[in-house]
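Lab notebook page, bench 4
Experiment: in silico fold of construct C2
Operator: M.H.
Input chain length: 98 residues
Purpose: comparison with the prior construct
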Amino acid sequence: MDAQEARARYVEMLMDRVRKDPFPSVDQLNRIEAALTPSNAGDYIEMLLDKFSRERYPSPPMLDRIENVAAQLPDRRTMEIAQALAERRDAGEDEDED
């Protein structure tokens, strides 16, 4: 197991606990946010949004968390550009191998 895999498992374990808890620990949420990567940030915000949707009166700190994480996610256009550049780079590498 490498560091990235360990971190991903750690975040997933914490997120499993938070999913089950109607009032998750602030410490656990802080730990998740400190260890988030682009690959698991989307899952985390989905979990927060799910909790938000089930609450009649969501807490202001939960709303703040959602806003903060959402602000850190890349926008769709940026992701499309990055993907297109990666595809061009990969296509160029394939041509170099021929």
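Observations: Helices lie at 3-20, 26-35, 38-54, 60-72, 76-97. The chain has one domain: 3-97.
Next step: discuss at group meeting.
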